[in-house]
Amino acid sequence: MKITVMTSDDKFISLDVDPDEAVENVKALLEVESGVVLQQQQLMYNGKEMNNHEKLSGLGVCEGDLIMMLSIAAPPSRSSSSDLTLKPDGSAANPGAFQQQVRSDSNLMAQLFQSDPELAQAISGNDLNKLQDILRQRHHQKAALRQKEEEDLALHYADPFDVEAQKKIEASIRQKGIDENWAAAIEHNPEAFARVVMLYVDMEVNGVPIKAFVDSGAQSTIISKRCAERCGLLRLLDERYKGIARGVGQMEILGRIHAAHIKIGNVFYPCSFTVLDSDNMEFLFGLDMLRKHQCIIDLKDNTLKLGGGEVSVPFLPEKDIPSHFLDEDSFSKQASGSGAPVSSGINDIRNVPSLPTGSQSSGGAGGNPGQSSEFEAKVSKLVELGFERSQVVQALQLFNGNEEQAAGFLFGG
Fold first, then answer.
1. Does 215 qualify as catalytic in the annotation?
2. Catalytic residue among 20, 215, 301, 348
């Protein structure tokens, strides 16, 4: 239908609109025709103001009706232009005035909530320090993007025979592929960026409840010295089974406990443990016992099943796992300081028979002072290969000073 709009300066504007058109859209058309911005328009019909959200048909506007448009002067700004400027670091010169100015623009706020929800929340909130931090962050991001665009443009016009320029172009193309791959992962596989909580179950070892880490990548079931002592099993430690546990690093094996009972669910199972002097793991249920008791790690039902499914226990949610078990950073620091594995992937365990007391003397060569200089020379040579002195001494003692055999043992041969 066609309607006529009379402006405050006695001009008539004819508009062809839909009966169900919103008043706000009519104002947008009038902004184009009259040059008066939408926010400064006031439309009157039959002496009543027309609100933006109302529809023409709802107000009773019909074919050929006349609508009055009044121009409203823009309210004076309470903030000076200097209050709304940004500093060189991107923060607002007057954050309070900047916040109020943006808040007062409903259209701008709606756009911000769609394009940058974090900034919109900061403007809507009361924490001006947070708002300043986000403004600085956005400024740095824009500066970095602008710099990258300039570098890409410079590479586009670079000399094709310039080797360094071509290397930069290659790196730029490679990085673009990585960024596209990352964006695809964010869209289609966002869970890949979340932390994966390891698998723990409730068990009892010799009647003492513990949180057991289920690790099919570990060769043997492992208990720490402290946990074995707490469970009353340290008295059964067989030190003849000393050795070295190798994984992401290596750790000394104190010995072995050959038989004890563990309770999973309501069923008791026989189990043997390798004992390590480690603080970053308490009890690790390894592949040897997983095989022995025909365990199934069912990730669909989130359970550990034993005996082919006769017994089923749920894996623990993150809230039920002790916080120090989840402190990967702390574990990494301990491991790097002690030479222990950073992760629990202890996949190679070498048992070393106990040595006679004389072979562990400080002389390092079976206690024979005459051989100490030769022994030290061998130790120094192997230490230069990157092994710790204690490991080298133990290996040489194990192979009666044979340097080649000790080196093969240290290298995992």
1. yes
2. 215
